[in-house]
Amino acid sequence: MTQLEDALNGKITDAMKQVAEYEGMIGEEIRAGVATGEIVIPKNINHDFKARGVGKGLKTKINANIGTSPSHFNLDEELKKLDVAVDAGADAVMDLSTGGDISLILKKILEHSKVMIGTVPVYKSVSKKFLEGKASTELTVDEIFDEIENQAKIGVDFVTVHCGITRQTVNVLKNSNRLMGIVSRGGSLMTEWILVNEKENPLYEYYDRLLDIARKYDVTLSLGDGLRPGTICDAEDRAQICELVVLGELAQTARKAGVQVMIEGPGHVPLNRIAADMKLQKRLCGNAPYYVLGPLPTDIAPGYDHIVSAIGGAIAAANGADFLCYVTPAEHLSLPTIDDVREGVIASKIAAHIGDIEKGIKGAWERNEKMSHARKRFDWKTMFELSIDPVKACRIRNSSEDKNRDVCTMCGDMCALKTYERAMTNPSLHKK
Which positions in this protein are listed as binding Zn(2+) (predicted)? Predict the structure, then answer.
């Protein structure tokens, strides 16, 4: 039985209890959300870790992408990235490896992980073909589904599958005036397969086969946005919306089959369209959890795209996004380093928290209020404990010349809080 099937049958599972405890809610609230499909709990039956939920009424979650490339692959480095991401607060990690011993890398990541793990199975399928000296378009239907089942069998909790790339949506794309075409790796691979083979996308045509695998292992489907905009100039064009309509239909079909599902969302979106985009997805996809990359509201900040993403992510989370895929300073430039991974997670955590305040998520406002009280008291220990990145906050404080005084070096003896306190408590200033 999947989490969704159990929820529909009125059962509160151990995973639901773990989610409820983490969120400060009761099990029945989680069960009800899972039953409607508004909450998913990505947890493969073969993967043991403390479950986290994604969806309506829950804290906005963060995913960190790691993984090798054909030009750079080191297992130890990827495991360090995994640890750094989780320590910084990531709720999930996706292994997007395409270089080195991909099978071993995924196996070790699953064994090592304390959080849910996601993949894009077609990456491995295509990588195998490349090693054989063949083209990605030579993939057979069985090879595509066999890889998905292999990954489900060893414990992958959620998989990105580009089912919305269909002959219809590709035709819409061909007749559009997009500036950047397709920027999704999986989306471009499936598009090429369709055009070269002159056949329908197997993930769409044989969707029932995909659902059978997902249901067997309780793998959550993350319906990929293969036609997401790669520039704000392409945001919300016909191709993107056409795919989103297809994903909404597929999400409904998955729920009826007892399979948990979430929807992946756009990359580059102008600031004034982000809120509407979140609401459109919820409406078209039956309030399925929304998993967004960024979004990025400008295209001209390479090296700082984690900041751009945090700006867009905060607005997205405030308007209904449930799951933010981090963006690192290396986005659009190179494979992220270990330090980049940490910076990306922290930036997304900030965005998620800002969104949670706006959504009224339990504990979000209270955490800010506690921080303000701690600052008023010069309670540095509590300030560090409440901060999103206590390691950096503590390091900066300890490097200050005034680290042993209840002031910060910026204000020193002109501390506004102390000046205010003197002004309010000095009897001579309050004589009538």
Answer: 268, 332
Residues 58 and 94 in one domain: yes
Domain at 178, CATH number? 3.20.20.540
Spatial CB neighbours of 90, under 8 Å, sequence gap ≥ 6: 62, 63, 64, 115, 326, 345
291 assigned to a ligand binding site: yes
Q: Model pTM? A: 0.95
Is 373 annotated among the ligand-binding residues? no
| Residue 162 counted as an annotated binding residue | yes
List, in sequence order, every residue forming a beta bridge with 233; answer none if it has no partner: none
Q: Cα(260)–Cα(38) distance, rounded to whole angstroms?
A: 10
Considering only CA atoms, which of 68, 70, 20, 36 is closest in space to residue 289? 36
Instruction: Count structural domains, the chain.
Output: 2
- Domain around 189: 49-359
Shared domain for 309 and 410, answered yes or no, is: no
In this structure, the answer to whether residues 214 and 264 fall within a common structural domain is yes
Asked if residue 285 belongs to a known ligand binding site, the reply is no
The verdict on 196 and 244 lying in the same domain is: yes
User: Tens of pLDDT along 33-56?
Assistant: 999 999 999 999 999 999 999 999
* DSSP string across 113-147: -SSEEEE-HHHHHHHHHHHTT--GGG--HHHHHHH
Q: Is 217 annotated as a binding residue?
A: no
* 420 marked ligand binding residue: no
